Fold this sequence. Notes:
Layout: H1 2-15, E1 28-33, E2 39-43, H2 56-66, E3 72-74, E4 94-96, H3 97-105, H4 110-121, H5 124-137, H6 160-170, H7 174-180, E5 184-190, E6 193-199, H8 204-207, E7 211-219, E8 223-232, E9 235-242, H9 247-261, E10 263-267, E11 273-279, E12 285-289, E13 293-297, E14 303-308, E15 313-314, E16 322-330, E17 333-341, H10 355-369
Parallel strand pairs: 11-15
Antiparallel strand pairs: 1-2, 1-9, 3-4, 5-6, 7-8, 8-9, 10-13, 11-12, 14-16, 16-17
Helix pairs in contact: 2-3, 2-4, 3-4, 4-5
Amino acid sequence: MKKLICFCLTLFLLSNMPVCAVSTSAKAAAVINGDTGEVIYAQNADERLPMASTTKIMTALLLCENADLNEEITVTADMLRVEGSSMGLLAGDRVSYHDLLYGMMLASGNDAANVTAIAIAGSIPKFAELMNKKAEELGLKDTHFVTPSGLDSEGHYTTAKELALLAAYALKNEAFAKAAASESAVLNYGNPPYRRSLTNHNKMLKLFEGAVGVKTGFTKKSGRCLVSAARRDGKLAVAVTLNDPDDWNDHTNLLKFGLDSIKQTEYSPKISCYNIPVIGSAEEHIEVFIEPYTVNTLETENISCSVNLPKFVYAPIAKGDILGSVEYKMGDEVIGRVELTALRNISAFSEKPSFSEELKKNIKYILMSI
């Protein structure tokens, strides 16, 4: 009888212990809400570790922000002084920044990363300065770059959480996001240029429905590194594992857990309709309506919005003209911005109003603006 009681008590205690719904084989891992940066899952997520070719997320982002994708450059022998994975560049090749971007994101070309760095900044150390400056701007305090490719180097590290935050930021760049989500690409480079086909090393694009990237990586020191992201039902989850021998399976579970954890709710401001005075028209005002905003978050208690509208506007106004904006925040972080537009046309006076009428109306709006 005592044994039965002890057994039942053990089952009761186990059933009431908190159990994490997901785990990994990684040395460090993180899952974040890609829209807000909220941490959904963390496993040694703040530990500084090498990140191999996931480094190229930063290199590719800086390419997208600092180069014309259509511009072509000539590859020099000095640019190719790097070992490891390659997109097949040779000295004398003509290649566009567009193709360098895809060479990095799909083939994980160390040659593409080196060429990009030297072409943009003049040298690897100067490009590393740009990388670290961007990391600082993004508030990544435990991230430091030495190489554009991710080859092992003293002082080259990040954390699972900060790498996830970097990836989420990079995915907001349209050119970067398009490359990261591409399963394959047909490029044109060489001397003279000729057509090449590249296939993305990131198997998650095929393994997980809704996957939109991001980047693989491996060195003996770092182990297998993977950054993945997926969108479903308007929600975005970003997962990172560092030194993970079972990353494909782990990311399948991490992305599902992340997407299931994000709540999708509508946030409505206290005032949803504003009347903006109009100068130079027979119309007294124009209405601006604020629609409910869909928020993807783990919690909604800390959400606020600020409405930015002028105190008056001048006619004529065309339907669709931008009149202002509303900004949504979670704490101090901006999580969304929506432009407020005119829903109808307002014409200017067909005939100039009398001096007294115009003066009276203008005085009214000037007093409102004081």
